[in-house]
């Protein structure tokens, strides 16, 4: 009987391969139906597109996907040193998501050229493409974790945490308290001495205590201890779907009938694909923040403002504010705070 590790590996590989093939088949079948409708129910065009989809998936699987998975699992050659990016998610984006987006754009172009509107693609194909990409992202992130029992990896680095600080009265502080002018002035400004003899700011101590209380990982063991339960595997699913919400909303806008039957569908899908390329970078990579602004928030902000001007409120204002705040805070905290006028510690 195969071990649990082998079963988990087979499960992951089958799921990733299904996420590669199924969206391509579904989207191309919808495109074949569109061509058949445009040619007055010509079945030849339908079966040619279906045959092309089977040939594409077969060739990609044999010549790209299988060799890629073999070299990654064997850790040979170039992929042995890969640490900052993920080849499998890159292959998923290039071999599945990109062709599906191209077919979606082509279907809109065919309807615009002929003037006969078959109707935009239904919700199922578009959601299926994104869901397949999200599944591959989750599989690649959850591989190091166990599927049964408690997780064997540490969710947080263990260590001492700060819960409460008190000012300790020492001999040196009493001597300083007896001094006349200088000591009184310093105490009136909220400054005292620490046990080591150095001056300490009481506001700094209070602020440190508050921040330690805010970020403390101490768990309660009382009656409501089940509320404090945390598991990195569950939070991984939550963080992954939150990571994709902005892109999903932008692609949803392309499904609106008046937007889909216009030329605005081209920049929507193109910019959405560029935002999808962020998945190639590992989740904890420092480049992810800057890539999120350059590849998603800034282009989406400009595009959403244009869509609201042209079509009205086809996209929620909430996402426009989200893109705007992310761009402004990124510029402020990464660039403006380094200027001398913003770096004063006595301001706020």
Automatic annotation (TrEMBL):
Highest taxon of the lineage: Eukaryota
UniProt entry keywords in alphabetical sequence: Membrane, Transmembrane, Transmembrane helix
Membrane-traversing stretches: 9-32, 44-66, 87-106, 118-139, 264-281, 301-333
Protein name: Transmembrane protein 236
Species in which this protein is naturally found: Pangasianodon hypophthalmus
């Amino acid at each position: 009987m195969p071990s649990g590790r082998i079963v988990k590996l087979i499960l992951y590989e089958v799921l990733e391969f299904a996420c590669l093939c199924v969206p391509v088949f579904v989207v191309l079948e919808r495109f074949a139906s569109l061509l058949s409708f445009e040619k007055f129910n010509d079945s030849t065009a339908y079966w040619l597109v279906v045959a092309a989809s089977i040939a594409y998936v077969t060739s990609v699987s044999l010549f790209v996907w299988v060799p890629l998975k073999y070299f990654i699992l064997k850790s040979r050659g170039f992929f042995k040193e890969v640490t900052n990016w993920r080849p499998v998610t890159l292959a998923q984006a290039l071999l599945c998501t990109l062709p599906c987006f191209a077919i979606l754009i082509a279907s809109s172009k065919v309807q615009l050229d002929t003037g006969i509107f078959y109707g935009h693609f239904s919700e199922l194909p578009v959601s299926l493409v994104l869901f397949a990409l999200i599944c591959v992202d989750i599989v690649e992130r959850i591989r190091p974790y166990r599927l049964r029992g408690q997780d064997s990896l540490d969710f947080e680095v263990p260590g001492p945490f700060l819960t409460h600080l008190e000012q300790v009265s020492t001999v040196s502080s009493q001597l300083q308290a007896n001094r006349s002018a200088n000591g009184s002035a310093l105490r009136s400004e909220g400054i005292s001495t620490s046990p080591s003899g150095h001056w300490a700011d009481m506001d700094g101590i209070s602020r440190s205590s508050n921040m330690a209380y805010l970020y403390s990982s101490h768990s309660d063991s009382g009656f409501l201890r089940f509320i404090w339960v945390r598991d990195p595997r569950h939070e991984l699913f939550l963080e992954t779907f939150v990571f994709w919400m902005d892109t999903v909303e932008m692609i949803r806008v392309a499904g609106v009938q008046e937007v889909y039957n216009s030329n605005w569908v081209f920049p929507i899908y193109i910019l959405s694909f560029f935002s999808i390329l962020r998945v190639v970078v590992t989740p904890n990579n420092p480049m992810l923040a800057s890539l999120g602004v350059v590849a998603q928030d800034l282009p989406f902000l400009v595009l959403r403002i244009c869509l609201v001007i042209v079509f009205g409120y086809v996209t929620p204002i909430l996402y426009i504010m989200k893109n705007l705040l992310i761009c402004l805070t990124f510029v402020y905290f990464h660039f403006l705070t380094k200027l001398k006028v913003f770096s004063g510690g006595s301001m706020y």
